Amino acid sequence: MIPIPYINKELELTAVTVGWLQTIYLLSTAIFQIPSARISDIVGRKKIFILGLLFFFLSSLFSGFSNSGTLLLIHRFIMGVGSAMMFSTSNAILVSKTPPQMRGKALGINTAAVYFSLASAPIIGGGLTQYLGWKSIFFASALISFIAMIGAVFYIKDNWKTDKQYSFDYWGATLYAIGLSALIYGFSTLPQTQGFILTLGGAFLLFYFGYYEKKQKSPVFNIQLFLGNRVFRMSLLSALINYASTFAVSFMLSIYLQYARGLSPRDAGLILVAQPIIMTLVTIKAGSLSDRKSPTILATIGMFIVFIGLICLIFLSATTHFAYIITILIVLGFGFGLFSSPNTNVIMGSVTKKDYSGASASMGTMRLTGQAFSMGLAMLAFSMTIGNNSFENVEARYLISAMRITFIISSILCLIGVYTSSIRKRSIK
């Protein structure tokens, strides 16, 4: 979120709208992952993966041409649809081609590639924003996704079509999309009355979705996989809590560094890059280690380290030394890297081959739902402290108050995640 000040200045967005630029992407990615996984079982994982890259390419390109906040939000939503298609199939494709004894190593390398991108993004994004404008970020993203799409067409050979009955549960997919959307959007509008109504209504629809799916011969999501597999269930819950407690960190610190501390996008990016660099280095080793040691223990230790880092972030002020911030980001990166690939190894190792797409999509849905809730928490904190005012017109102390509220709640969530991670089985076969 490095280009926020530039986007805000040109399009004149409110603080809440700025938050929705990230949240709407997370929301659309979350609600379309489960349906995309089911469709990939019917038409093939390769086809859906490539189609997702095409969606991402086009939406990134059009985002760069957006001249209003509304258009940018629409294109970000479509970008999320493309991401859902990719996320729901990528791990399934990877695990399908990897021997079980090397699964953790492969997942670690894959996760490290994602984190390397995150490490590069603040530096590249900050430089592009400062020298070429915020739209250049979307054009660069379009170019990269186009290259990836061409590579996928020529280098992914198999299609992995696992269900030849060509049956899709449209009603179940609709229930899921409406329920999850209402839940996430309702949470982001708390403490307003409509927020409580939408949150409770969304939770009820998701509960009914689970009841409905149990009775379907060809469900959009195999609910029995969740209800009957304790390791799978607790691992997904741990992932949900982990992302819900950590994702808003970069967003809040980006706002803090640029508005409360007056740093340029490039300098803010150079500080924020510390976390994904450490995540990249740690997750490769953690993935390989999870093939030999208990991935549950590794993931739980990682979650606890993240908890320590979040506690330390609560004490940031308008004069905190930048070395302290970088140190905490390193701690968070180490903990998150130690949690991520071992937890993914547990999830993918707890299901059979025919359920790889569903497991991959479920994991992605928990990740994106957690991220959306984390952004919703940040937006709630901003609503409580600065309302709909623009960031330029708000004193630094109010931004810091919103940040502290976010990190206090995130710390509590993370501590719960330490517990949920620790009570699943100690090992997987």
Describe the structure.
The structure is a single chain. By secondary structure, the protein is mostly helical. It folds into 2 domains: 357 residues, Growth Hormone, Chain: A, CATH 1.20.1250; 51 residues. Helix content is 79%, strand content 0%. The protein contains 17 helices and no strands. α7 runs parallel beside α16.
The average pLDDT value, as a whole number, equals 81
Structural class of the helices, strands and pairings? Answer: mainly alpha
CATH homology-level superfamily of the largest domain: MFS general substrate transporter like domains
CATH class of the largest domain: Mainly Alpha
The biggest sheet amounts to: none
The CATH level-2 architecture of the largest domain is identified as: Up-down Bundle
Helix content: over 70%
Q: Could you say which overall geometry the principal axes of the C-alpha atoms support?
A: globular
User: How many strand segments?
Assistant: 0
Spell out the helices and strands N to C: HHHHHHHHHHHHHHHHH
Give Rg in angstroms: 20 Å
